[in-house]
Amino acid sequence: MDIDLFEQLQKEGTISAASAEKVRTITTTRLFSVHWELKTILYLGVLLLSGGLGILVYKNIDTIGHQVILLAIALACGGCFYYSFRHKLPFSREKVPAPNSFFDYILLLGCLLLITFITYLQVQYNVFGTRYGAATFMPMLVLFFSAYYFDHLGVLSMAVTNLAAWMGVTVTPLQLLSANDFSSYTLVYTGLALGALLIVAALLSHRLRFKAHFAFTYSNFGTHVFLIANLAGMFAAYDGPYGLWFLLLVAATVFFYSQAMKQGSFYFILIITLYAYIGLSFVIVRLLMRTESEGGIYAGLLYFIMSGIGAILLLINLNKKLKRA
Amino acid sequence: MIAYNSQSLDNLYVQEQAEMAKGADCITAEEYNAIITAYPADLYTPNPYMRIGIFILTAIILLFSFGLFCLLSIAGGEGAITFLCVLFGGGSYALAEYMVREKKHYKSGADAALIWGAGIFLLSALGIATDADAPVWVWCLAALILSLFFVLRFADVSMSIVTHLSLLGLIFSGCVQLGNIAKLIIPFMVMLASAGVYFLSVKLIAIHTYRHYKKCLQMLQCCALITLYLGGNYFVIREVSNEMFNLDLQPGQDIPGGWFFWILTVALPLLYIYAGIRKKDRILICVGLLLIAGIVYTVRYYHSVAPLEVAMTLGGLAMIGIAYALIRYLKTPRHGFTEASSDERHAMEAMQIESLVIAQTMSHAATPRPDQFEFGGGSGGGGGASGDY
Q1: pLDDT band at residue B363, thresholds of 50, 70 and 90?
Q2: Which of A96, A237, B123, B124: CA 20 to 30 A from B337?
Q3: Testing the interface with B: which of A56, A263, A301, A320 to mutate, by most B Cβ within 10 A?
């Protein structure tokens, strides 16, 4: 904090001498925190180590060396979980803080190595059978258990991506659009179901007060997956009943909107508005294309200009509303 | 020079400080309210998420208005489009001025979209008017003048990046004109200019008159440190001279004075980190850490010390070890450093972002397949490091 400023405020009589003194003490004894720098190094270390070991196992799969590597992975994994069990704070339905910043990443490393190990056993020896997508189901169980037992948001996010992979959808944030073929209706329906499931999980976390801080992760994935699947369904029904998909979108928007207002979340309001805007624009453009006239093009351009202004005014209004709440 | 009311910006600063003091329990709620009423700020700044939305929507409006006018004047040919670009450039700028001065927008998203629109339209006008074959230095000069003006007028952080890059582009294209000597002096000119920009912004940031440009100057420091490194990086120099000056180097062949650039490649990031720790300067530390990746990449590109997976495993182990040792060492704060998080208020939000980064980069590592070795290490580095801002 700016000491000179607070001294000036004290001279003006806006704040008391005691308050100015507090500011002075805090500022002069303030430490330079390298918390996030260290976390970033840890994160990169875990990323490199788990990735490197993962490749090592597969590159050496036909040699004797790979059993040594496998043993090393098992030992490292055991070590990580041993550390996590030793240092963890007692389980609670509420948020449990990590005992230190090292703990989070050791647990993460343990989970990653365990998954590498399970996947290897599955690929090489088919330990869990081939039915019901066992190769992704087992890691998912491990991840969900670890996420809840040790209270780790990162592991929970990985568990959700794994759940989606098990159901056949890629929900890794940046690959959500590129890695899925949304023109197939199976995927659209799976996406809708997965999105709804995650939203329900979010609501239940809140309602049952069981790890309520996990709700954001669930509803974040859920909202995106549901709305993207919905839009994809609408685009796929290009010449068909896109009106029905639009009705679903309207219903979903109204529901998500009321949830977002309840939580006072600017983030959700923004993404819902943008998804709804895309859906609305698609319908308008389709309707204008039906007129097959030059006037339709002009009307379309005018629509985007006017609707853009309208959407901005809407966002500004919602911003005001949320700020007051 | 700045378009905003200087008093409002100062008051906004006082309010932010008061908020911090209130968050740290230094001042009482009554004192906080008294400060807010004594220093009113009438600037309109929506929530950061809303800002993103307003930016996107403003860009959509600009784009489609331009499309509409293009369609209307399609009979006019090239001259009409040039005129339209100039008109839209000027119009966007005028609208940005109006938003800032009358509507008191400050970092609302609309201002940034309009400024960027103005710049892009005016440059497009230049491109169409010259049939897109103006020399590079003309483009750089035009971009430099425009972006510098926008930085000074609106203190826009993203524009300061453009300013720095177009300055370097101008120097680069100017040197290329010199002919044969160019390949010798370009690295030094780029490094000299970057160092100049860095030390100038360090100087200016301490001066009271330029207080409203603090964020721009910090961004300039970041950019200048990175380009200073790139200017002296062995990989960059070897490959760029190969491409641009037809050096025709074979793999394994060295560039003239290669040892000198090898020293710079390895020493500069370490120097940054050392200076950052000495001065407690976060920008130096973060850029230094980021550029460690530059060292690793450059060395591995020319000298394959170990297979990739072995290097990854060992590197990962070393990084975890270093971080563990530092966390243990700083458990009780030493030399004014601590490993504890300083800002508890944003911790939850940061945790959410962290979890998304983990989901993005590690889900691949979680289920490796023999045919797939893309582990997204590169993107992960960027994602992790940007968490500090």
Answers
A1: low
A2: A96
A3: A301
Lowest mean pLDDT among A76-80, A237-241, B144-148: A237-241
Closest CA to B262 of B295, B226, B293, B223: B295
**Residue B383 contacts by C-beta under 8 Å, 6 or more apart in sequence?**
B357, B360, B361
A67 three-state secondary structure = helix
ipTM of the shown complex = 0.85
- The confidence band for B345, taking pLDDT boundaries of 50, 70 and 90, is low
Q: Are residues B110 and B69 in the same domain?
A: yes
Tally of domains in chain B: 4
Residue B20 CA: distances (Å) to CA of A154, B33, B34, B46, B344: 29, 13, 15, 19, 12
Main-chain dihedrals φ then ψ at residue B237, nearest 5 degrees: -65, -45
Among B252, B278, B303, identify where a domain stops. Answer: B303
Whether residue B102 lies inside any domain: the answer is yes
B128 and B156 within one domain: no
Least confident residue range of A31-35, A301-305, B3-7, B61-65? A31-35
Q: Is residue B389 part of a domain?
A: no
| Residues 6 or more apart in contact with residue A64 via CB below 8 angstroms | none
Nearest CA to A267 out of A214, A304, A224, A213 is that of A224
- Residues A255 and A222: beta-carbon distance below 8 Å: no
Contact residues, chain A, for B309 at CB < 8 Å: 51-53, 55-56, 59
Secondary structure of residue B123 in the 3-state scheme = helix
**B20, closest residue in chain A (CA to CA):** A1
Contact at CB, B14 and A54, closer than 8 angstroms = no
**pLDDT at position A252:** 95
Percent of chain B residues topping a pLDDT of 70: 89
The helix-helix angle for B214-232 and B157-176 (nearest 10°) equals 30
Q: Across chain B, what does the average pLDDT equal?
A: 83
| Amino acid at residue number A62 | D
Four-point Cα dihedral B230, B235, B236, B240, nearest 10: 170
Confidence of residue A124 (pLDDT cuts 50, 70, 90): confident
The tokens describing A228, both together, are 């993207």
Q: Are residues B244 and B272 in the same domain?
A: yes
d(CA A99, CA A12): 44
Helix (H) or strand (E) holding B125: helix B110-129
Burial of A135 (0-12, 13-18, 19+ CB in 10 A): buried
B312–A15 C-beta distance less than 8 A: no
Q: What residues make up the domain containing B212? A: 152-228
Output the pLDDT for position B351: 67
Give the model's confidence band at B343: pLDDT under 50 very low, under 70 low, under 90 confident, else very high: low
Under DSSP, is residue B291 helix (H, G, I), strand (E, B) or coil?
A: helix
d(CA B362, CA B381): 12
A280-303 tens-digit pLDDT:
999 999 999 888 788 888 899 999
The beta-carbon neighbor of B326 closest among A38, A304, A319 is A38
Residue in this structure with the two tokens 């369609």, named with its chain if needed? B71
Give the global pTM: 0.85
Per the CB < 8 Å rule, is B289 touching A40? yes
A266, A272 Cβ separation under 8 angstroms = no
What is the least distance, in Å, from the CA of A184 to any CA of chain B? 24
- Which of A16, A48, A101 is opposite residue B319, by nearest beta carbon? A48
pLDDT winner (highest mean) among A110-124, A306-320, B250-264: A306-320
Whether residue B92 is found in the same domain as residue B110: yes
Distance CA A157, CA A147 (A): 9
C-beta separation of B81 from B121 below 8 A: no
Q: What are phi and psi of B335, to 5 degrees?
A: 50, 30
Nearest chain B Cα to A34, which residue? B339
